[in-house]
Amino acid sequence: MKLALTLAAVDPSIGGVLILGDRGTAKSTAVRALPTLLPTLKVVDGCRYGCDPDGNGSRCTECLARVVSGEKLHTRLAPVPVVDLPLGATEDRVAGALDIERALVRGEKAFEPGLLARAHRGFLYVDEINLLEDHLVDLLLDVATTGENVVEREGLSIKHPARFVLVGTGNPEEGELRPQLLDRFGLSVEARTPSDVAERVEVVRRRDAFDRAPEVFAERFKKDDAALRRRVTNARAQLANVESPDALLTRATELCLLLNVDGLRGELTMLRASRALAAYEGASTTTMLHLRRVAPLVLRHRLRRGPLDEVGSGVRVERAIQELFGAADVAS
Amino acid sequence: MLPADQDARLTALLLAIDPTALKGAIVRGRSPMLCEQWLQLVADLMPVGAPSKRIPSNISDERLLGGLDFAATLARGNSVCELGVLATSNGGMLVATAATTRATTFTHIARVVDEGSVRVERDGFSESHETAFATIVVECADDEAAPRALADRLAFVVELDATSRDAWNNSPTREIATAARARLAAIRHEDASLVALARGAARLGILSPRAVLLALSVARAHAALLSHPTVTEDDLTCAARLVLAPRAVTLPDAEPETNDEQGDSENQGPTDAPPETQDIQNNEATEPPRPERDADSPDANTDAPQSDQNTLAEIVVRAATAALPAGMLAAAAARASGTRGTVGRCGTEQQNGTRGRQIGIRRGEARGGARLDLVATLRASVPLQRVRREARTDGAQRVVELRRDDFRIRRCATPTTTTTLFVVDASGSAALNRLAEAKGAVELLLAEGYARRDKVALIAFRGTVAELVLPATHALARARRAVAGMPAGGGTPLATALDLAATVSQQLQRDASQVVMVVLTDGRANVGRDGRGGRARAEAEALESATRVRALRTDVVWIDTSSRSEVLSRSLADAAGARYLLLPAANARGMSQVALAARSA
Q1: Catalytic residue among A153, A265, A316, A319
Q2: C or N terminus of chain A, fewer CB within 10 Å?
Q3: What global pTM score does this model have?
């Protein structure tokens, strides 16, 4: 789980992370921890959509207008947004809508950006994603595919970039996920309760300490957090320099073929994820070891399931890896 | 006085002492009266003025979470956020009935329980309100249970029985609770207590760390009640009995392997749930050391002497074990064994339906059977009236400026029934013993479906005809009779049978029923639609009908009853878009599981 989130933090283009798991496996807790681990982001000062000052990708209409009018855009540092999309959210708050207050009081038509705008260049976190209402799922899928949010309302026509890493958690017990949505996730992990008693004692102890004195607790782990943040920052910088040999791609393709994975997203994501892992570990080239470690994360949710499959997809992925990579000589 | 009665009183008291840390309780009782009395007891013990609210079964998200206060907004001319029930229950208690409350409502509650605040991202508001309360879920009947995700977050399970009533006559008073509450903040606990609870929980097969934290809070509340300055052995014993015992999955002496399996299969919910967890767990099961040994191994994180912790953990386990009523572990094991799949999915609702009870509104137009929600539509338009009037250039005066954007339609949830439609080959070529197995599978599904209020229908085909032997029914006895009396022998009019199956499925779908079709045949079609023989033509027609079945988009399970996999049968299954299964791989139970898997997919 930690690995998957870290990889997504290093290379957002991997796609989202899906965390499935039983009750009490700290799914949500892990995601909430993200902001502390992420390096700050350069954004255009005064931009409501958090545009990139370098204009990588698209700019929002407001920034474009400012550039066109010759205004110089100032830069400010902001934390990477990790936006929480609660289940009960209404469509107008997700996509953005007319500012009711201003419409009511001043009779003005003003666009009030929604959660999608806030999550731009960051993370959008949906707890219990399998229970999200269908029309919101559709909206998310649309935006995730195009990287843009389009709102046509009251004669206002707003289009703004909204690229984010979708992080979803859920308990499969409570409902299935739609296949289209499942496919949008780059990585998936299964969260489990540690079976080691000492580890569990520590989990409970930490949580108890946190509940009693959150500040003291945060102080205790501040150093670790900072170290991790530095590592992610470095990995991001290194990402472009990491080389991936062709053999690696071949192997990834073989793996996908062996497992009968539909589409090419599997290979692509595996390549990106192993590159991110290599960068995170300070390696200059990706190796088979990297690939081997990310493969289960990438492939687990992409397998087609047969009617009477005795073995789960996780095991099937593991077997295929064994077959291709030979006996497990890898200590991960 | 029975211990159970004392516990009912004690839990009420503890809950009232620290409602926000203990999060609440599940109350089970045969009679609603009894549950009401217990609720009253809790309410009487809560702080004066603490809110005590009840969630109506059909509460809208708006009322639950909060949103635009329409009246106040209009009156004051600026938007006013109205707090939902979750926010206004802060510091008090919130009562919900398991049977009638919507699943999403419970999900919202669980979220608030976790975060201690309610997030409002609605109607243009983006706010967060701190709130913490005791959630009490009443399970009065046997059939509906609170969702496990929520149950896991609440400290207690209170079982009420008829004898309890008299015992409450000398109920504790509010003064006692208030005094204990005042002492609560000063209560200290040693790390050893926490470790003991965690170890105890592990030995009882309780996976969720939340149980340990809740047990600790209970121990603290108990210490406050008895004026202990720190958490004592006595308090831990009480916590073990009240919090850990109801969650126990294994007896402490059981092998760790079973711990893993049972705890794990618990999360396997629907029969189609990914089995990988279990497999992985099984592989790992050999790795984790037995709890006993682990307890002896050096533990870097503990400062207290090991032996003390072990005895304390032992006490916790013993207290919990002693509180286990006979047969309860068996029930837990049955619940966890996964053979029954989910605990009754009769509550399954088809979201976004156009019929049934309303569960919300969404933007959209009243097309395709969707119903316009007039009030919601008008509400949506109100804030924009001024903007629109000013934008109007033709000078026309309208009472209400409505735009298409305002249209709100009702989202309804239709409770879906699932009908398993069996299409059984009773021809001579399908060996008779296969037919017996098919009958067995139908009977099994009947029994399981009965508990879930599913329906079963059966089409049999032989000779030249296919016949709906059993129209969709809940009636168990009737279905059994029809299945048992099914004759066999003759040709295989597969095309006719599939046509009939498609027609029946269509009818069922129209009645908002989810259909799972289970076809049992060897695929050797030899009678055409017109009742005449001729293998080649019969096969071609069967293939055609199979394609028609596919167009229905229902779940189809194709069970090949021949002894070896037949190419023809296989291609027919593919044409029907079915999951293919060779019968030797499936006995009656296997078959019923496949069908169940299909229905929950």
Answers
A1: A265
A2: C
A3: 0.69
